[in-house]
Design brief:
60% of the residues lie in helices and 9% in strands. The chain is mainly alpha-helical and 43 residues long. It has a domain of 28 residues. The chain has a two-stranded antiparallel sheet with strand order 1-2. The N and C termini lie far apart (42 Å).
Length: 43
């Protein structure tokens, strides 16, 4: 996968698709844990 930006000073970045989806899954997991902590604190 190639990530491109509209900003001319920044260059494109190539990322393997499996690494990209791994990052998404890990971010989702961190958000889920954060949500559990917030709910436990407010409960």
């Amino acid at each position: 996968m190639i990530l491109q930006t509209w900003h001319r000073e920044l260059e494109s970045k190539k990322i393997p698709i499996d690494a990209f989806f791994h990052k998404i899954v890990m971010m989702r997991e961190r958000l889920r844990v954060l949500e559990q902590r917030v709910n436990a604190r407010n409960g």
